């Protein structure tokens, strides 16, 4: 009887949710490097150009705070990365190279590739920003990388994560994609952290199954080190009361 109750109230719902999430994956069209256009906004009309890429489970809304001053001097390009926010969620492996291709399409379309652009990113967005700056040095004049996850290799990453919580450990393991398939369960209102705004939490629910490999991060950073490029984290990018929304202030 106990086993039956567990099956009815836990196993069957989890399987149903995971199955539906898998169905949504299958029905999406495949990623097309030439046609899959990300959702983005351009704020301000200043001469200086600034591209901002959010982190994991984020969206372009992370950057929308205290923009009155900087939007007078800068043109801000805020982008929802592939699989996040209102951007398309196609069938894809969502590798670093795919994310870069998707951003490149927007940069080319809007002319943020003229060598006068500053590119910045937070966490996963910092990885993508760093890789883009390394690949297209003539597109950008500088880069700002916030909370970039820096590890020597995959082994060091696993060692560090082994000291974290159970959720962090399983989320960074080979089982992470299966956890993502049941994310509607733990992304419900009952599990909302107190330090997240409603807007940020709603955006977090929109993300697709993502997994940027540690090896790709290491390769991007090593390439910069080999070319003696300095990686800088700007103190002008700050958190407000630990709420996951970035206040960029003025540069």
Topology:
Layout lengths: L1 H26 L12 E4 L4 E6 L16 H4 E6 L16 H15 L6 E6 L1 H12 L4 E7 L7 H8 L4 H6 L4 H6 L1 H4 L11 H7 L9 H13 L11 E3 L2 E5 L4
Parallel strand pairs: 2-3, 2-4, 4-5
Antiparallel strand pairs: 1-3, 6-7
Helix pairs in contact: 3-4, 4-10
CATH topology call? Rossmann fold
Q: How much helical structure, as a percent, in the residues?
A: 40-55%
Taken together, the total number of domains comes to 1
Helix-strand category: alpha/beta
Biggest sheet strand order reads 1-3-2-4-5
Distance between the termini: 63 Å
CATH architecture: 3-Layer(aba) Sandwich
Order of helices and strands: HEEHEHEHEHHHHHHEE
Q: What portion of residues belong to β-strands?
A: 5-15%
The CATH superfamily is: Alpha/Beta hydrolase fold, catalytic domain
User: How many beta-strand segments?
Assistant: 7
Largest beta-sheet details: 5 strands, mixed
Please tally the helical runs, counting DSSP H or I stretches of 4 or more residues.
10
């Amino acid at each position: 009887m106990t086993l039956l109750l567990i099956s009815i109230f836990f196993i069957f719902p989890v399987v149903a949710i995971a199955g539906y999430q898998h169905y949504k994956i299958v029905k999406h069209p495949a990623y097309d490097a030439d046609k899959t256009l990300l959702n983005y906004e351009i704020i301000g009309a200043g001469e200086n150009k600034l591209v901002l890429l959010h982190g994991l489970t984020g969206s372009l809304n992370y950057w929308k705070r205290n923009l009155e001053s900087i939007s007078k001097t800068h043109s801000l390009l805020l982008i929802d990365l592939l699989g996040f926010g209102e951007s398309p969620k196609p069938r894809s492996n969502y590798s670093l190279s795919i994310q870069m291709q998707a951003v490149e399409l927007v940069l080319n379309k809007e002319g943020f590739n003229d060598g006068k652009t500053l590119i910045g990113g937070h966490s996963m967005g910092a990885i993508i920003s760093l890789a883009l700056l390394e690949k297209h040095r003539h597109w950008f004049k500088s880069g700002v990388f916030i909370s970039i996850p820096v590890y020597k290799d995959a082994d060091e990453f696993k060692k560090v994560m082994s000291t974290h919580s159970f959720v962090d450990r399983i989320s960074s393991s080979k089982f992470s994609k299966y956890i993502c398939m049941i994310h509607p369960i733990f992304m419900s209102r009952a599990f909302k952290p107190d330090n997240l705004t409603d807007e940020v939490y709603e955006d977090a629910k929109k993300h697709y199954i993502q997994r940027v490999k540690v090896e790709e991060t290491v390769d991007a950073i090593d390439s910069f080190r080999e070319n003696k490029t300095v990686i800088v984290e700007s103190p002008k990018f700050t958190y407000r009361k630990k709420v996951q929304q970035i206040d960029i202030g003025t540069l």
